[in-house]
Amino acid sequence: MMRKENRSFSQDQFRGRLRLVLIALVITAFALVARAVELQFFDQAFLEKQGDARYTRVAKISAVRGSIYDRNGEALAASTPVDTIWACPPELVRASDQFQRLAEALNRDKKWLEQIVTSNLDREFIYLVRHMRPSDAAQVAELKIPGVYLLREYQRFYPAGEVTGHLLGFTKKYDDIGQEGLELAFDRVLGAEAGAKRVIQDRLGRTVEDVESIRAPRPGENLYTSLDLRIQYLAYRELKAAVQEHRAKAGSAVIIDVDTGEVLAMVNQPAYNPNDRDQVSPSRYRNRAATDIFEPGSSLKPFVAAAAVTTGRYHADTIIDTAPGYVTVGMNTFRDKHFLGAVPLTTIIAKSSNVGMMKMALALPPESIWQTLNDFGFGRVTGSGFPGESAGLLNHYSHWKRIGTASVSFGYGMSVTSLQLAQAYAILGSGGIRRPITLRRADEPVIGERVLDARVAAEMLRMMERVVSEDGTGNRAALLGYRVAGKTGTSWKAEQGGYSKQKYMGVFAGVVPASRPKLAAVVVIDEPHGDKYYGGDVAAPVFANVMAGALRLMGVPPDGLEQLPSATLVQAHPSHE
Description:
Blueprint: H1 2-42, H2 44-55, E1 56-61, E2 68-69, E3 75-87, H3 89-92, H4 99-105, H5 110-118, E4 126-132, H6 134-142, E5 148-157, H7 165-168, E6 170-171, E7 178-180, H8 181-185, H9 187-190, E8 195-201, E9 207-215, E10 223-224, H10 229-245, E11 250-257, E12 263-269, H11 282-285, H12 288-291, H13 301-310, E13 319-321, E14 326-329, E15 332-335, E16 342-344, H14 345-351, H15 354-362, H16 366-375, H17 401-409, H18 418-429, E17 433-434, E18 449-450, H19 454-467, E19 485-495, E20 498-512, E21 519-526, H20 535-538, H21 540-554, H22 566-572
Parallel strand pairs: 2-10
Antiparallel strand pairs: 1-8, 2-3, 3-4, 3-5, 6-7, 8-9, 11-12, 11-21, 13-16, 14-15, 17-18, 19-20, 20-21
Helix pairs in contact: 4-5, 10-21, 13-16, 13-19, 14-19, 15-17
């Protein structure tokens, strides 16, 4: 009886355990189904995101910065493709056995590589080498090291080097962002916007599929400048030779198209090469022609004379008595280098008489002189838009007093830039029309503003032609076959406590051809050393050499054939026999 009860108990126990197992299996099944439903319907977005995080990346699509060209389409600045090597430290550290090979391919030390990787394990992006040549970067890619990637970027290159360095400026060393010159002035035009796309990569970081485009790249626009590279080379060569010959501290030259206000050339010495970033320092890369100011000396006299002629009281043949050869204003006495006596205004300009200019200026209302100088653009920027351009200095006539008027009459007591002075001469050359200076190519006629009567401008050009005659101070600026209207200038440099009697600025400014001016130019030689320091000796020859080549390149017909020797004319028109 007992045995029967035990058997029954065992069967009941078995059935109970079986139920428990079945219940457990059913619960497990329901749990699995519930989990599957949760994963498939409720957590799908989260899981996809986690999966994408492990196998997808947002890749940068580099965009090229716009190129810079001269007016004829010659490349001045361009961006060339390069490759940057970057790494994901958490991935790369797992391939530490490859560090030696990678360091050799990068031309780096293994310890450097270990340090930069292990100290950035909390980051997913670090640069290893910026801007490698594509051929060298390809060798790194062939190593197929996990966590090492290539990024296509661009590096700025300046084909003309230091010839255009001061005008173009430069971009950041590794990023195409303008820092100086035209690169900065037109950064919004030239600048590109990188794109982005989502890609799937394998475990070695190789892209196996493009998933989607996030942002399309936007390349920069090209910039066509007003510069004529041929004339720029001419100006650079001649200015450099003059600075070296006269052992000058520095020099500048600016050439402007009279009809449009376009800057055809702008050069400085000493120069720098924007391709060599070791040379990039403020003392070397500033564009002196636009930023440095100086007292123009006698090169300002034509504009003071224009103010006098505008009043109707003076003309080219008006006699001015310079006797006794000096003028005393307050405690200051000013003398001429040579006694001229009573001579016409044309001779005052040609011989650069300070006494004659002062007597004339002191007989005029100060406001008339100031207004004329203001109309010519002195005391304000030219409108070029060049970064850091100086406005110069022209005090209001109410602050001049008598000594101020006397000083301004021969170019002291005020300051100008080379670019500003060139614009003023361009206004004379254009018959009294002021046009804003532009560094972009002008594809349409440029409308200007009349600031001087055309008759007065023409009279001033005739007087300035005498400056370049045989007995004028600027005879070394004369051109074979062309009439030249210009003016020399030599000024002492200001220093603490007054003016230095050993430091000079030599200037020549003018327009050609004088009968119908096409080009206006200014040459400035800063602190020439030696016996020659006058503008007519150090700056005028540079003007002549550059203008001779520029007129020939631009095909401007001669207007002074009557000045040529007969033998020269015969050579120019050979017999057809």
